[in-house]
Write a structure and sequence with these properties.
This protein is α+β, with helices and mostly antiparallel strands. The chain is built from 13 helices and 14 strands.
Length: about 400
């Protein structure tokens, strides 16, 4: 009887295995790529991974881009690199309804996985969705809603996944250029990003690193192949557009830093010319100007020192927006000046010139709208250095 029981058990296990594989064949797993939205937090696009089980009708999207606006100290944690994102799961219909409402296009790439790979990926996602695993420390460039999906696929496929990044050789872009592509027409946001993030953004991103942006990950998935588990096949078996909307034509908007900063430059040029003719300083303009630069520099310094985001380090915007300008602004309000003030004006002039040199040499790219402000800074530090002693007593 024992051999018969053994045979029956083997047949039973084989039947279960076959049924399990048949069920795995029914899964349809795909990458969803969503176009950017109009808000700064949605301006870089989004990625999700869809798992459809036609047998049960379960159709869900795993979303690594979930965060809580209402979390305590949200802004400070985001700026300081201490904000946690988490994996959430929603129905496909609910996911698509949101993008349909905001008129953001969504494209789907069905992944060409075998049965074992599908099940392994689903197990990976479900393990990540456990309460103790679903939160992760967000990093915009290296650990975000797109890279989490890419890394999940890479973990499941291992060396069988070939990205064919060599096809992108010769078209490298810096991290800053990649960001500018997405926020070029959001001029104030673009300026804020360039002020907050330092010189690390000015190195070329590898094709693999470009995938922090969903649209580049979509392109990488289209190039990739699966090798080593049978005939070589593309990672993506089919692609389709789920939602298609025309992209609005980009505009700078009526109020943007480009023309506003040139107006500021013209005003300071006129003030300097009139002051030279009438032998006046018009010091109030300088107090406001250097005060604003000092505040900007203080914020950048705090990001450099206290933020956990590596890209906020080595930010050479601090050469022209220096925290010490706050002290200068206060000192200029007094009727007398200390000898150090003249030395500081010379220091500020040299720092402003150095920022231009850094820009020309490519050590850090500054936002183009800052050109008139740098000219104002050079003009006024030079004018004050040679004239402030004529109107205020040095003590």
């Amino acid at each position: 009887m024992r051999p018969n029981k053994t045979i029956i058990s083997l047949i039973f296990l084989l039947a279960i295995s076959v049924l399990y594989d048949v069920h795995a064949q029914s899964y349809r797993i795909s990458l969803l790529t969503c176009d950017p939205g109009e808000e700064i937090y949605s301006s870089f696009g989004h990625s999700g991974i869809r798992v459809l089980d036609p047998d049960s009708g379960r159709d869900v999207v795993y979303n690594y881009g979930t965060f809580d606006f209402g979390a305590p100290n949200f802004v400070l944690n985001f700026a300081g690199g201490r904000l946690d994102y988490y994996l959430s799961v929603s129905t496909f219909d609910r996911f698509i309804a949101e993008y349909d409402y905001f008129r953001r296009s969504v494209r789907e790439q069905v992944l060409n996985l075998n049965e074992e790979q599908k099940l392994e990926l689903i197990r990976f996602l479900e393990t990540n969705y456990l309460p103790e695993n679903r939160a992760y420390r967000y990093d915009f460039f290296y650990d975000n809603c797109a890279t989490r999906i890419r890394d999940a696929i890479s973990t499941v496929l291992g060396d069988q996944l070939v990205w064919h990044d060599e096809e992108q050789e010769g078209v490298e872009k810096t991290f800053r250029e990649l960001i500018d592509e997405m926020v070029y027409y959001m001029t104030w946001s673009d300026l804020g990003i360039d002020l907050a993030l330092g010189s690390r953004l000015d190195r070329d991103a590898t094709p693999h690193e470009e995938q922090f942006l969903p649209k580049y990950m979509e392109q990488a998935f289209a190039r990739a192949e699966i090798q080593g588990d049978g005939p070589t096949r593309p990672l993506v078996s089919e692609s389709r557009v789920i939602l298609g909307f025309e992209k609005p034509e980009g505009t700078f908007g009526a109020v943007n830093p480009y023309w506003i900063f040139w107006v500021v430059a013209l005003v300071f040029t006129a003030v300097t010319f009139v002051g030279f003719k009438k032998k006046k300083l018009f010091i109030g303009f300088d107090v406001v100007f250097f005060g604003v630069l000092g505040i900007i520099g203080l914020v950048m310094s705090l990001l450099w020192i206290y933020s956990l985001i590596p890209s906020t380090k080595w930010n050479w915007n601090i050469l022209w927006a220096f925290p010490g300008h706050l002290v200068l602004a206060v000192a200029l309000l007094k009727n007398t000046i200390k000898p150090w003030l003249l030395k500081y004006l010379l220091f500020a002039l040299i720092m402003a010139d150095a920022s231009v040199v850094f820009w020309i040499l490519g050590w850090q790219s500054f936002h183009p709208s800052l050109i008139p402000l740098l000219l104002v800074l050079i003009l006024r530090t030079n004018y004050l250095y040679y004239n402030v002693g004529k109107f205020k007593k040095v003590v």
